[in-house]
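Fold these two proteins, one after the other.
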Amino acid sequence: MNKHLPVFVVAFLLTACAEPLPENKLHYAGDWQSKEMALLILEDGSVAYKRLKDGATTSVNGPLKEFIGDDFVVGVSFLTTAFDVSEPPHEEKGVWRMTVDDVQLTKVNE
């Protein structure tokens, strides 16, 4: 039996649970970066997050479950992570910015 099969099954189930971003939240889609954080949000609702803080790395990969105002929740069932968006995506002098969990992110050009 393939020892990687459980990983593929879990990955498939997580992405199968993703729903596309709502029309009014499409501006969240993109590759958002800072020195200590990377946040990838796809239009299909998939999210990949990685943050380095205090010498430790935290990462979350999963479907975007819901928006609560400007904030959003990623995960399935009770295994979720909430992201606090204090500044939603906005354009400043041709550069897209967003502040998530007190970190200012810049959208990487596609």
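Now the second one:
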Amino acid sequence: MCHMTADTLDELHRMADKIGMERRWFQAPPKASHPHYDIPESKRAKALALGAQEVCQRTALHYAARLGLEWAEAQSDTVRQIKYERTLIRTQSYARVLKDTQL
């Protein structure tokens, strides 16, 4: 199992649909620390074949915070917005490293 996040909630749900995940498996606060899907190994392989990218835990944290911020803004959850904004600031260098390696 692994977590699947994305740049946007729409992108996350589109990929989940493509790999056969049911929307009811989507996890978001307060039951989860950030919006994501837990995907099994078989669906992970399919997501990678469709263009998903593996990232280290630090980079995943940055993208999870970006997704969480989008979710929190849509929910008008200001407490979580602040939490995700702080995480984004703290993890910004991780995202730069990923971007630099993709050039």
